[in-house]
């Protein structure tokens, strides 16, 4: 095997203290973190308290702010969201506990090639370059009643009895995220003018993904990235970052930071919702930087449609002045594309559409 293709394995618990980092983690110059702390992204936190109690003025206000953010970059903060702070703290505590375990233990949940769930670490067994400085644990959540314990079961089956309590916390956390994301879908329906129930109904029974992100300290934070620049291919992301900070978004041709606020969730539009809105609402490039002293965690809930749902915009969003941009597709097709063929970026949807067309072409010819 050529030496540069040899698989390697690093122990993050040692690597985080070393003053030199392996070349696989060094990003090319044009993608390296900013040398100066970037400016903060200016975003008014959107109050959900009034929305949740059905106050019409608050609903209109929230819809107006969401509309502004989503036409521009697709990122906004929500506060007074009704999610119990204790549940959020427990989820963070469990995440600390999991990633603090020895590698052999975490590898019980090891992600299999081609799969999108399980434990993944760039520090072990990978061949490529531009590696993210992180470990993740991803699992499936389904809002269908027959899957009411899918997250709890996953922890029990894969990690064993010791993780049963954390599994229950994650199940409950996902249920809270499901309910919050359906509320956000109501606001998005209002702000897009299709009414509050349209997208809420579209995402009933959603088949979503929850990911726990863990970023160990890095002694060369100016050379590495926790998560490289990407757009989320999913529909809507609801992220809770801890107090450390590191999330950045690319707006007006430069990187901006999103300051941590434990009371808030960071919400962003993904490619699938961009297609559902016929391109009216946009997602944008974002990334996570690392630091040399403090581990950082974030909890990401990725809302995704049920597998058999056709992603097609409502007729109200298609007209002569705004014709269809993307063909109909299903979420599993886009997921396969981003897993096997393409690193998600600003142009994922365009590239996906070309890939779909080519595939269709080949089928007709073949
Ligand atoms: C992600 C992501 C950013 C963060 O998981 O898709 O963008 O701050 N995470 O962890
Ligand atoms: Ni992301």
TrEMBL record:
<keyword id="KW-0479">Metal-binding</keyword>
<dbReference type="InterPro" id="IPR050231">
    <property type="entry name" value="Iron_ascorbate_oxido_reductase"/>
</dbReference>
<feature type="domain" description="Fe2OG dioxygenase">
    <location>
        <begin position="205"/>
        <end position="305"/>
    </location>
</feature>
<keyword id="KW-0408">Iron</keyword>
<dbReference type="InterPro" id="IPR005123">
    <property type="entry name" value="Oxoglu/Fe-dep_dioxygenase_dom"/>
</dbReference>
<dbReference type="InterPro" id="IPR044861">
    <property type="entry name" value="IPNS-like_FE2OG_OXY"/>
</dbReference>
<dbReference type="InterPro" id="IPR027443">
    <property type="entry name" value="IPNS-like_sf"/>
</dbReference>
<protein>
    <recommendedName>
        <fullName>Fe2OG dioxygenase domain-containing protein</fullName>
    </recommendedName>
</protein>
<dbReference type="Pfam" id="PF14226">
    <property type="entry name" value="DIOX_N"/>
</dbReference>
<keyword id="KW-0560">Oxidoreductase</keyword>
<dbReference type="InterPro" id="IPR026992">
    <property type="entry name" value="DIOX_N"/>
</dbReference>
<comment type="similarity">
    <text>Belongs to the iron/ascorbate-dependent oxidoreductase family.</text>
</comment>
<dbReference type="Pfam" id="PF03171">
    <property type="entry name" value="2OG-FeII_Oxy"/>
</dbReference>
């Amino acid at each position: 095997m050529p030496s540069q293709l040899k698989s390697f394995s690093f122990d993050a618990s040692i690597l985080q203290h070393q003053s030199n980092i392996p070349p696989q983690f060094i990003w090319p110059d044009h993608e390296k973190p900013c040398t100066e702390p970037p400016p903060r992204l200016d975003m008014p936190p959107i109050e959900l308290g009034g929305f949740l109690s059905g106050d019409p003025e608050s609903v209109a206000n929230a819809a107006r702010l969401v509309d502004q953010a989503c036409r521009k970059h697709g990122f906004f903060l929500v506060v007074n969201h009704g999610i119990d702070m204790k549940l959020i703290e427990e989820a963070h505590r469990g995440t600390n506990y999991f990633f603090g375990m020895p590698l052999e233990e975490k590898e019980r949940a090891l992600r299999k090639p081609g799969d999108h769930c399980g434990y993944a670490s760039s520090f072990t067994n990978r061949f490529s370059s531009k590696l993210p400085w992180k470990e993740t644990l991803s699992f499936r959540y389904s809002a269908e009643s027959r899957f009411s314990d899918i997250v709890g079961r996953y922890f029990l089956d894969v990690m064993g009895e010791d993780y049963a309590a954390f599994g229950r916390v994650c199940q409950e956390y996902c249920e809270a995220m499901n309910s919050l994301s359906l509320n956000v879908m109501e606001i998005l329906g209002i702000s897009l003018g299709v009414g509050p129930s349209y997208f809420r109904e579209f995402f009933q029974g959603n088949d979503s993904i929850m990911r726990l992100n863990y970023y160990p300290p890095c002694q060369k934070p100016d050379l590495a990235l926790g998560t490289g620049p990407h757009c989320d291919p999913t529909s809507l992301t609801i992220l809770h970052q801890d107090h450390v900070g590191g999330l950045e978004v690319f707006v007006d041709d430069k990187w901006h930071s999103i300051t941590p606020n434990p009371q808030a969730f960071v919400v962003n539009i993904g490619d699938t919702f961009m297609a559902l809105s016929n391109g009216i609402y946009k997602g944008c490039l974002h990334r996570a930087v690392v630091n040399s002293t403090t581990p950082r965690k974030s909890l990401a809930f990725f809302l995704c449609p049920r597998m058999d749902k056709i992603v097609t915009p409502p007729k109200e969003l298609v007209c002569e002045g705004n014709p269809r941009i993307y063909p109909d597709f299903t979420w599993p097709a886009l997921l396969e594309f981003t897993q096997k063929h393409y690193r998600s970026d600003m142009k994922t949807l365009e590239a996906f559409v070309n890939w779909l067309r080519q595939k269709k072409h080949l089928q007709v010819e073949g």
